[in-house]
Amino acid sequence: MGETETTTSPISGASVRRGDRIFRGTSLGAGTFVLVIMGAIAAFLIWRSIPSLTSNTANFFTEEAWSPDGDPPVFGIAALAFGTLVSAFIAMLLAVPVGIGIALFIALYAERRLATTLAFITDLLAAVPSIIFGLWGLEVLLSGSEGLQIWMSDWLGWTVVFDNTLDLYGKSLFLASIVLAIMILPTVAAVSREVIVQVPLGHKEAALALGATRWEMVRMAVFPFAKPGMISAAMLGLGRALGETIAVALILSAVFTVNVHVTEPGGNTFAANIALKWNEAGTNGLSALVASGLVLFVLTLSVNMVARWIIARRAEFSGAN
Q1: Could you tell me the residue ranges of all domains in the chain?
Q2: CATH superfamily, domain at 76-318
Q3: 73: how many CB neighbours lie within 10 A of its CB?
Q4: 256-290, pLDDT tens digit by residue?
Q5: pTM: predicted TM-score of the whole model, two decimal places
Q6: Residue 196's closest CA among 306, 117, 102?
Q7: Which of 33, 209, 210, 271 has the most beta carbons within 10 angstroms of its beta carbon?
Q8: What is the pLDDT of residues 160-219, one digit of tens each?
Q9: H, E, C per residue of the chain
Q10: For residue range 143-161, what is the model confidence (pLDDT) as tens digits?
C-alpha cells in the first residue's frame, strides 16, 4: 500500500495529512466564497438603491407613504418595517413555545410509534408550499377567526394592541402572524427535536437517579445542553417569517400606515410589498423597492449575527462549539 503524504504543522509540529490540508483549504475557500457572494449582494443592492434615495423628498426611515414614482417622489419604510417586525414577533411568540413543546413531547414523552408518526407529520408540514398556507388563511382563517378577534377586542382591548376601534375584521397583521406561526412551526419543532435527541443519555439518567422528576430532568439536563440549538431553530423560523412573501401578500391589505391595532385591516411587509409592486413599478419605483430590500437584507443579517452571539455565549454551558 502507498504511504499517505504528510507535512509538519508550523504551529504544533504535528504531522498533517494531505487529505486534511485539502479539506481545510476547501472549507476555507467555501467560507470565503460565501462572504464574497454576500458582499456582492450588498454592493448590488446599494448601487441600485442610490437613484431613488437621492431623489426621495421624504425621510426614508420615518415616512409611511409609498409613492416613489410620484412627482415628487415620496416614500419610506416606516410602515413596512413596522408590519414586518410586528408580524414576525407575534409569529415567534406563538410558534416557538409550541414548537419546543412538540419537540420535547416527541423526543422524551411519546411512545416510539406515536413519536415517529408525529415527527413525520411535523416534517411534512415543512414541505407545504407557502402559497397553500396563504390560500388557507385567505379562505378559511379570514372568516373563521372573526369571533376570536371580536372576543379579543372585548376582553383584551385594554392592551391597545388587540383593540379594534373600527369594528372591522378583515385582512390584518394578526391573521398574517397566525399564518406565519404555522409556517415556521415545523422548522422550530424539527430542529429542536434533533437537538434534544442529541442530549447525552448519561445527563438525563444522572438527573433521574438523583430523584429529579421528568420536568426537573428536562429543566436541569436537557435545556442547558439543547438551548443553543433551540435558539438556532428559533432564528431559522424568524428568518423565514421576516422574508415570507406570497402567504403574507395574500392576507394583508397593503395599507401603508403604522397601526398598533393588529386586528384592524391593514399592514404591509418588506417582502410582500416587493412582490406586489415589482411588476407595476417604474424606474424609480424599482430602485425604491431594491432600497427596501437592502433594509430587509441588513435586518436579516443583524438577526443572525445576534443569534450567533447568543449561541456563542451559551456554548460554555452546553459544550457547543
Answers
A1: 76-318
A2: MetI-like (1.10.3720.10)
A3: 20
A4: 888 899 998 888 899 999 998 998 888 999 999 99
A5: 0.86
A6: 102
A7: 271
A8: 899 888 888 888 899 999 999 999 999 999 999 999 998 888 888 888 888 888 888 999
A9: CCCCCEEECCCCCCEEEHHHHHHHHHHHHHHHHHHHHHHHHHHHHHHHHHHHHHHCCCCCCCCCCEECCCCCCEECCHHHHHHHHHHHHHHHHHHHHHHHHHHHHHHHHCCHHHHHHHHHHHHHHCCCCHHHHHHHHHHHHHHHCHHHHHHHHHHHHHHCCCCCCCCCCCCEHHHHHHHHHHHHHHHHHHHHHHHHHCCCHHHHHHHHHCCCCHHHHHHHHHHHHHHHHHHHHHHHHHHHHHHCCHHHHHHCCCECCCCCCCCCECECCHHHHHHHHCCCCCHHHHHHHHHHHHHHHHHHHHHHHHHHHHHHHHHHHHCCC
A10: 888 889 999 988 988 988 9
C-alpha grid cell, residue 237? 423560523
